[in-house]
Amino acid sequence: MAVHSFRFGAGAFNASSGALWTDRARQIEDLGYATLIIGDHIGSGMFGPFSALAAAAAVTTTLHVGTTTFANDFRHPAVLAKEAATLDLISDGRFELGLGAGWAKRQYDLSGFAFDSARTRVARLNEAVEIIQRLWSGEAVVFMGEHYRLDGLQLNPRPTRPLHMFIGGSGKRVLSMAGQHASTAGILERMLPDASGTDAGSENLETTAAKAAWVRDASAGRDSDVELAVLIRKVVVTDDREGAAATVAADRQTTPGGVLASPYFLLGTIDQITAQLETLRARSGISYISVFPADVEAFAPVVARLAGH
Length: 309
Prior knowledge:
Layout: E1 7-11, H1 18-30, E2 35-38, H2 49-58, E3 64-67, E4 70-71, H3 77-90, E5 95-100, H4 105-111, H5 118-137, E6 141-144, E7 149-153, E8 164-169, H6 172-181, E9 184-187, E10 190-191, E11 198-199, H7 205-218, E12 227-232, E13 234-237, H8 241-252, H9 256-261, E14 265-268, H10 270-284, E15 286-291, H11 296-306
Parallel strand pairs: 1-2, 1-15, 2-3, 3-5, 4-5, 5-8, 8-9, 9-12, 12-15, 13-14
Antiparallel strand pairs: 6-7, 10-11
């Protein structure tokens, strides 16, 4: 297993003005984060990803911008491929396209999208990934799948280099797909049975390492190793790790022991959090760590210590 250097993503979901949004992008770059990331949630207060990421890229120089993740069912892959290629070009190659099968049933229902079975959503994502990558290659794509059809479409503009693709999921089918096709595989927590979210408190180093192994097994034979990623649910910098775990557990309806064992919660001093991430990488290979907007400043000392190492 190749050891990737640590890099870090910072969530930035919205702002009350354009000026505050671009200020936030500059701040994230100045704090040493590699990537500004945004989700894809219809009906929430979150900005539309492409416009927001284009604005962030325009006022920064080294910061990558990306999504974790576009819900595949909300856009046709041909449309998504063109928007992604455009943003990649105007950001000078700093866009990272994140894709997932979609999970927020309530948003599907409110928007009138059919929330099909997980198997169907994953199959549709698999077709979309193939279509996007073939369009990015420059070929005239003829595709006759179960869910999508293209009849000789050729993408213009198209990327001048291979685009960075992030595929995120919690199950073996999606993570295996990431191992086969993605630059980065986002390892998510177990999905709740009602598809309302994820259950970070049910995960530990062993379950996370097992998911990482699915990615590695599927990536066998590829020229480059797939980077592995997690999105941290909560960061608490504190001298009282056990007390913080109890507070987080009460809020998340899980147990303090589950919080302390989970790689999706980082609690403790800067030294303790640093050690937790080093252990996570050693055990699972995960090296790309992202945090939610509320934790960007608190987590910055860890970024300063570990980025690039």
